[in-house]
Amino acid sequence: MSTTGKQLFTTLESDGTLTVAIEDATFPDPVGDQVLVRMEAAPINPSDLAILVGAADLENADYSPGKYVATVPEPFNSASRARHGLKLPAGNEGAGTVVATGDGDKAKALMGRRVACVPGHAYSQYCLADAGMCLPLDDHSAEDGASSFVNPMTALGFVENAKMDGQDAILHTVGASNLGQMLTRICREDGIGLVNLVRKADQAALLEQLGATHVVNSSDDDFMQRLCTAIDDAEAFYGFDPIGGGKTVDSVFKAMEQVAVGKMTEYSRYGSNQKKRMFIYGRLDTGATILTPSYGFGWTLSGWLLFPFLQSAGPEIVGRMRKRVLENLTTTFASTYKKRVDLEEMLTKEAVIDYRAMKTGEKYLVTPWK
Amino acid sequence: MSTTGKQLFTTLESDGTLTVAIEDATFPDPVGDQVLVRMEAAPINPSDLAILVGAADLENADYSPGKYVATVPEPFNSASRARHGLKLPAGNEGAGTVVATGDGDKAKALMGRRVACVPGHAYSQYCLADAGMCLPLDDHSAEDGASSFVNPMTALGFVENAKMDGQDAILHTVGASNLGQMLTRICREDGIGLVNLVRKADQAALLEQLGATHVVNSSDDDFMQRLCTAIDDAEAFYGFDPIGGGKTVDSVFKAMEQVAVGKMTEYSRYGSNQKKRMFIYGRLDTGATILTPSYGFGWTLSGWLLFPFLQSAGPEIVGRMRKRVLENLTTTFASTYKKRVDLEEMLTKEAVIDYRAMKTGEKYLVTPWK
């Protein structure tokens, strides 16, 4: 017995034609530790957008009910050549009710329960998910649990990674994002120093309401000076950036080095010995990362992804993180949504253009059965 | 009783005026574990050039015996603001004879012996050096030992660092440099895979004579394809680059990722899970480092400097490295010199312009008593 339902697929052809459409799909019966989840809510996170819309020309796309066809311009189309011709599902995470399970004990224990899951194809009425990655939501609603993985585990992952590396302060380049707000609450709870960068005064005010102590506004004329002061105060030489392109990381490294050089008693042509560490965990700006030779050789920049981090952290730490998320789902890890759309509504011109803008506080929630 | 002799100093004023001049200097008596070395030979390494000449306009400088005055253009002058007004010595390493020592046992054991040392002011007739960093040269000449620290320990450091990180292959972006040749010999001796990048056919030929197995010429039309093949063959996802500016590291990361993606059975928008690691250990190109979003998130780029590495490696490993250098000083770790100049001769227009060009195989040796 297999199950049928609507599912979103995204296909990029080699000529740059992107087709995103809702189709009738058949879901095989779950086996082993798989569960079949009737999906009730799935967020559109920045990390979903690359595959969902990417750099497509949304203004001039061809929209019809449950479908749009757009063109992905160069160089973005060629950069995506690995997916040319592939029909891909989308949606990292979501929540719903387990309606069938495989024979595995982990799976059977979830039968009939509401869970959050990370199927990778959450924009769908049904999903096959790994029971080991499901979080039973108990009395919480599907909407409460829909965003319980990507942002909460990423924000917690930053703090865990910092602790592993012996750091007790973090810098975050997009402080006011949904993830940034969670990070602000976590750092406050754990006594971890946090330097938040924002772009606007109202974002700074929002973070200060959450108890943030070091908020620096990049629109201020004396931004670099304030950034140095904040880094110095918090002793934050370790940070995370989802922008990727441009000079954000470069500015942060410069400020960190300026603080360190200010404490040196003797000139060194090689710069300070202060170790400076940054991670790029997203690509909100798909331009090149620019690193100027302005901060010696004591720096390290890495890409950062949630799943490889969780794998390296191991099951004990991951279990502790998930437990903490569940216990604080509607407080520390709460997400808010601007709008709820079903699968067809998420492919209208108005919706696609709106959620691709990724404005702070304007996240969309997909509710496939609405 | 103090000693007097000639010494080179380099001073950059805030207006960009760079004065490099030989002066009469007084050297205090060594104390504790210090030794006073009568310097007989000191190489001009790329790492010495930044402080010695930097980006100064050497064509239009004012040359007089034992002195030149040049202008450092922007943005290089402002980037060097930390040294404005400071009169600095120069010359990382050299070799000579110990003529006086402090009271420390380590120092006293070196009295009268020929040693290699790392005083940081080697362009001088005398140097105060730390006995612990001196390498007794026994029957070797000062010229044999002059370059026994910076290049040999850096090349060995790459291999030690790779081993610490569980790697058995290295990529080096300037294969034919003096350091690159040493690295080729070391990797061959140690059974470490090595991918060498070069810019010219004669450099490739030189390395192949040394037994290099993977040499890729960036002037070839099919460079990227050959680079991928070499990385794949050697399984080299870990490398070192002294160029720094531009897209060298970017090209290497792209090739590494291309090799890894070629082995994947399923598309991932996040790229491969293959960890890719590069280190920038110099700034032959002082432009910005450009990193395009073309290789997922599984990459790490760091600055790399010899002294912090040695400090983290600890005395046992450093001792083993130094012993290996001494035992193979005229073979594995041999340096060759294009020209020998005394302190005055090293400040002539012809010499300065020639050694700043840093051409492969054209290293200068300063012989202060010639």
Round the Cα radius of gyration of chain A to an integer and report it: 22 Å
- How large a portion of the residues of chain A is in β-strands, by DSSP E? 25-35%
The CATH topology of the largest domain in chain A turns out to be Quinone Oxidoreductase, Chain A, domain 1
Question: Which pair has the most extensive contact?
Answer: A-B, 37 and 38 residues
Q: What is the average per-residue confidence, as pLDDT of chain A, rounded to a whole number?
A: 95
**Which structural class should the secondary elements of chain A be placed in?**
alpha/beta
What's the oligomerization state?
homodimer
Instruction: Report the span from N to C terminus of chain A.
Output: 25 Å
Name the CATH class of the largest domain in chain A: Alpha Beta
**CATH architecture assignment of the largest domain in chain A:** Alpha-Beta Complex
CATH superfamily of the largest domain in chain A: Medium-chain alcohol dehydrogenases, catalytic domain
**Count of structural domains of chain A:** 2
How many β strands of chain A by DSSP? 20
Proportion of residues in helical segments of chain A: 25-40%
Number of helices of chain A: 12
